[in-house]
Fold:
Amino acid sequence: MRRPELTWANLLVRTRETLDQSKLSPTERHENQTGSLVARVGQGSVLLVDDVITTGATIKQAAKGLEKAGYFVQGFVTFAETESKRCNLTTQVTLPADGGTSWN
Structure:
């Protein structure tokens, strides 16, 4: 069985500057990120990579931008979660393959 080739590419571009998210509430983070990322048109499956996750606002906007450009977001990986544990990916980040209820 042949494995699919994995490649790294930065497909997302910021459409505008955003505020530093560290002092924002979950609602403010969502508003701060809304419409802030677009992707080059393309196709294929992608895995999102982010350094830190707090509320999921950035991951959610990244996924929206990629899906709008023609990609299928398989999931994401992060290297850290903030201690505040305000991240609730089952309600903030959706995956169409499971009906939009979680990334699990």
Notes: The first strand starts at residue 12 and ends at 14.
